[in-house]
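Mods, move this if it's the wrong board.
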Amino acid sequence: MKNLRTVISSLTVLIIILLNNQKLSAQDVNGMELGKIYNYSYMINKFGTPDKYRCGNSEYGLDEEYYYGPNLFRFSENGCFGAFSLKDNRFAVFTLDMQGGIKVGDPVTKFNQLGFGQLISRGNNHYEFIGCGDAWFDIYHNNGIITTMLCRFPS
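Not the wrong board. Structure tokens:
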């Protein structure tokens, strides 16, 4: 009985160590992770001057939107990266998980190469990618080729 308890305790510790060392994937765009804080200077240095910039204050702090062509990056609560919409191939998602990431124009099946998550069909030309923690990730496509990727944290 004592040996069985020792084995169970050892296995429990091993499982905890393995789970704590497991890489938790965070949604990113060109290395910029959802949920992290970024400011105007960071965006300019990383992506250049946006084509359009909007900002305003809410009860939670500064809210910002950066537009690069048809692409949108949304920040709230003083710089928390909370949402994006990608409609051309100048930006890539999951670049921290996959060399080159996934871009508009790639086949939707490229998501299967991530090694985590699941594509769920949500109707004609629409998938949801489950596997980004709390983030909602929608993929729109035309004949299996990505046309738009939308991602946001739930409000």
